[in-house]
Amino acid sequence: MPQSLRYAIITPARNEEKFIELTLKSMVAQTMPPVKWIIVSDGSTDKTDEIVLGYAAKHSWIELLRMPERRERHFAGKVYAFNAGYDRIKALDFAIVGNLDADVSFEPQLFEFLIGKMEQNPRLGLAGAPFREGGFQYDYRYSNIENVWGGCQLFRKECYEQIGGYMPLKGGCIDHVAVLSSRYHGWETRTFPEYVCDHHRTMGTAQQGQLKAKFRVGVKDHSVGNHPLWEFVRALYQMKYPPLLFGGVALGLGYVWAMISGKEVPLSPELVAFVRREQMQRIRRLFSRSSKTSHANTANEQRLNSAASSEAKEAIR
Description:
The protein is of the alpha/beta class. The chain has helices at about 20-30, 50-55, 75-90, 110-120, 155-160, 175-185, 210-225, 230-240, 245-260, 270-315; strands at about 5-15, 35-40, 60-65, 95-100, 105, 125-130, 130-135, 135, 150-155, 190, 195-200. It contains 10 helices and 11 strands. The strands form 2 sheets. The chain has a 7-stranded mixed β-sheet, sandwiched between helices. The protein has a 4-stranded mixed β-sheet with strand order 5-11-7-8. Helix 8 runs antiparallel to helix 9 (about 245-260).
């Protein structure tokens, strides 16, 4: 393996006995294995540790790191677990560090492909693959290819350290803030839809129903400084996905509730300004494309009507 392509993976895991073996099987099958894969058991009380130890006994690059059980459950716990894993590997020789969820499965070529893309582009600081969940998958012809799903994120080591790693936000959006921070510091970020991760637990539903999960997403959107106009468009877009109509409404209500409640936006004013500038640029591009499409359709209709009129005249003659 070329020196520049060496990578390490960290997987925070808490009570993942139902799905983690799917992730283990996917990693063991990789055409390019990591130099080290640290699975951080974040106070698991089920058979997660036992399953991991079974694979670690057969593959020297897999290691289980056990964290004490936490009474309080919040999103910042994932960052604390990831940091513990990073401390374990930072003395190793690697160029790329990945964050991988413990409830996904994927094809054997995934990491070789992603790291190949990072090797081709030295400014690509963060890369990943999209997720598929049941019958849902984002269509990246219309979704932002620069956003990288948190369940599979590969950072160039310099990028990860420049942004200060993951921000321990108890309310969530940890992965998204890392993407925004990477772009703010001048790095490119990109999702490559050629390969897909199958996500086996419905996002945001570990302890809540779908509508409540959507509401909480809206609250988190406010916490990362989303522009109100952007959030309105996002809520409209989400209405076409299950739960139909109500999901988008719940998302919008979560954002509005957080805004009128004066919920804290923990990001720096500079990063919030950067986020909103990007969002308004995307909205302008969206309406510009829609306007061009509308003009093109009108022109086509005029040509068709003109042709039909000519044919009619010829028929009369």
